[in-house]
């Protein structure tokens, strides 16, 4: 595909890297010469300097025959105008825009359509990250939780602990331990290296285990790998910006929530909007403020300011003062691997969360969900099977007959309301939602080809 990306920041740069590795024709537009030069030296892409919403700049980037425009600059207005210009002047077939401000997204149905602003897909990073953190809070002990088929199936990552019933045993014993629960281990990462699970694979303590199960069975499977944690009750959110506010608003009816916000005016505004949340004005890196917020009795401390260093320091302090679990928003990818798994339990990368949402609209074949896992190293895909046994490489075939790319496993098949955990004898039928796990995302194009019908279906 020929794709123009507006914005060479963290999201635009990461997206360009993902798509360039899959042999797409990528051009990135930005006003920052240095950032474009760095991307151009590292990736096989084109770069154009200028304002992405200017017709001449878009034309210079090849908009006349581009398949897709992805506008992810820091300005909602630039992103929206660029999509309008691409549609009006170049009839660009597909237009995706990152829109952060709730003033726009709350009126999306009337605002974003061919008769108004012609944007096909809106990505709201704040909402994506909010939903991601909410799922982690709902599943104590999970490192990552992603939904498929409208939430009927979930892929969960957990760290296996000493003393877990299945630790030290072969995977085939899962069925003996849980005769009434069906699950599939999609991948195991041991000391950072991926293992394709077989029946005789032995789970070791400290393994990062990705498993797929129906939503109602998740806790039962987690209990086999680690001691189950009690449901969380008390949450402290450091930072009352867009993400902190959205998270508090989403969870305040189920949990005891406190928000710590350093700006007095913002704290006052939050107090007026969040009727079931305690809003405190103060610094999250101040020991006395954390003690005042009763940090020692807190189940989860979420550091969600827009300052990586402040988030990391606040999280380390909160953990030292007794917070049971800390989750930290970190925009700089270089920091993520440094801090996760030590005093910081979960490092959340807004870029990786957003990239998954963007990729699901770029993939060929009928791909409806894409999730970036393990900070971009692996990928989970939900694809819909079409055609019949003659025109499709998957329909009418049992799972053990499908020629899957190396490092790819099928975890589950969703047929209407029915969840079928993947076993060798399961036969794929038309319109099945197939959940796949790729330990090497360079194989993504091969998976897409599997789900293309004949020669013309995209």
Automatic annotation (TrEMBL):
The keyword Transport applies. PANTHER family: POTASSIUM CHANNEL PROTEIN 2-RELATED-RELATED, TRK SYSTEM POTASSIUM UPTAKE PROTEIN TRKA. This is Trk system potassium uptake protein TrkA. InterPro entries: K_uptake_TrkA, NAD(P)-bd_dom_sf, RCK_C, RCK_C_sf, RCK_N, Trk_Ktr_HKT_K-transport. One of its GO terms (molecular function) is potassium ion transmembrane transporter activity. Residues 143-227, 368-453 form the RCK C-terminal domain. The gene is trkA. PROSITE patterns: RCK_C, RCK_N. GO terms for cellular component: plasma membrane. Pfam families: TrkA_C, TrkA_N. NCBIfam families: PRK09496.1-1, PRK09496.1-2, PRK09496.1-4, PRK09496.3-2. Residues 1-123, 232-348 form the RCK N-terminal domain. Keywords: Ion transport, NAD, Potassium, Potassium transport, Repeat, Transport.
């Amino acid at each position: 595909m020929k794709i123009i990306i507006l914005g060479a920041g963290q999201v635009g740069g990461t997206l360009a890297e993902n798509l360039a590795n899959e042999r797409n024709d990528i051009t990135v537009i930005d006003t920052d010469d240095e950032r474009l030069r760095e991307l151009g030296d590292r990736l096989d892409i084109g770069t154009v300097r200028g304002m992405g919403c200017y017709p001449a700049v878009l034309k210079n980037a090849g908009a006349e025959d581009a398949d897709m425009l992805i506008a992810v600059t820091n300005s909602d207005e630039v992103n929206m105008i660029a999509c309008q210009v691409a549609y009006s002047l170049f009839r660009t077939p597909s237009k995706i825009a990152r829109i952060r401000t709730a003033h726009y997204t709350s009126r999306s149905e009337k605002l974003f359509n061919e008769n108004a602003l012609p944007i096909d897909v809106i990505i709201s990073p704040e909402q994506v990250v909010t939903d991601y953190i909410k799922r982690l809070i709902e599943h104590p002990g999970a490192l990552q939780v992603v939904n498929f088929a409208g939430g009927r199936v979930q892929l969960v990552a957990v760290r296996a602990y000493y003393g877990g019933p299945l630790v030290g045993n072969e995977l085939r014993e899962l069925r003996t331990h849980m005769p009434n629960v069906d699950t599939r281990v999609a991948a195991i990462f041991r000391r950072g290296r991926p293992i394709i699970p077989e029946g005789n694979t032995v789970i070791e303590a400290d393994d990062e285990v990705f498993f797929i199960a129906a939503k109602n069975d998740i806790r039962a499977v987690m209990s086999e790998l680690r001691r189950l944690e009690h449901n969380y009750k008390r949450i402290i959110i450091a930072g009352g910006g867009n993400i902190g506010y959205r998270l508090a608003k989403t969870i305040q009816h189920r949990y005891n929530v406190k928000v710590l916000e350093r700006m007095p005016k913002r704290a006052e505004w939050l107090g007026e909007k969040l009727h079931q949340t305690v809003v405190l004005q103060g610094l999250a890196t101040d020991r006395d403020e954390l003690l005042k917020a009763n940090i020692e009795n807190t189940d989860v401390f979420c550091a969600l300011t827009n300052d990586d260093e402040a988030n990391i320091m606040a999280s380390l302090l909160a953990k030292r003062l007794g917070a049971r679990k800390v989750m930290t928003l970190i925009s700089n990818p270089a920091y993520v691997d440094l801090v996760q798994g030590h005093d910081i339990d979960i490092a959340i990368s807004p870029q990786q969360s957003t990239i998954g949402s963007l990729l699901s609209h770029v993939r060929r074949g009928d791909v409806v969900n894409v999730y970036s896992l393990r900070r971009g190293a692996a990928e989970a895909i939900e694809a819909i099977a079409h055609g019949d046994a003659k025109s499709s490489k998957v329909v009418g075939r049992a799972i053990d007959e499908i020629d899957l790319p190396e490092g790819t496993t099928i975890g589950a098949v969703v047929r209407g309301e029915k969840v079928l955990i993947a076993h060798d004898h399961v036969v794929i039928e038309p319109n099945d939602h197939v959940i796949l796990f790729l330990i090497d995302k360079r194989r993504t194009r091969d998976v897409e080809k599997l789900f293309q019908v004949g020669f013309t279906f995209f």
